Amino acid sequence: MGLISPVEAREYSFKPAIGEVLSSSADPERVIVTEDGGLQALSYSGKMLSGFPIYEPGKVFVSSPLIEDVTGDGNAEIIIVARDAGNVYSLEAYNVTGVLIGSKVLSGVTVYYDPIFYKSGTQSNILIPVEDGRLLQLEYSGTNFTSTQLFTVNKPFTVASNGTDLYITYPEVSGVDVYKKSWN
Prior knowledge:
Blueprint: E1 17-19, E2 29-33, E3 39-42, E4 59-61, E5 66-68, E6 77-84, E7 89-94, E8 100-106, E9 116-120, E10 123-129, E11 134-141, E12 144-152, E13 158-161, E14 166-170, E15 175-179
Antiparallel strand pairs: 1-2, 2-3, 4-6, 5-6, 6-7, 7-8, 9-10, 10-11, 11-12, 13-14, 14-15
């Protein structure tokens, strides 16, 4: 894993994901959230990839996308948080052709900060901090995600990782906690 980058608060600023979506391409692709809540995947030269853009009926994408292999098949998927018209959030995974391959409704939560990817051995996890101060861990299994709660800090926070440590920052109080590898 690379350097730690700050995450952004929900629905105001999304960072593009840059990575290897097409294993047949020598150059990285870019995945972005559009101003109208869609999802685009572009080749290095700027051409739209087949199957994109994606617009889900009744939903908008509300996080920065991730490009990671969560299925373990050697091909990267695009992972993103969506919100429907009823204010229900979900984590969604799309393959390289824009086909939804997995989804998990995040019932009763509000997602304010971007998810991150964390790989521990062969286990690939998506970590999502939610508004009420819980950290959710989602793992792709078969055709969907399973969800567990890692811990609760009872206040809003962001999460980042350098692949070894987990960094929890508290925007409201300018605080940081560091959790070593044993947290998983």
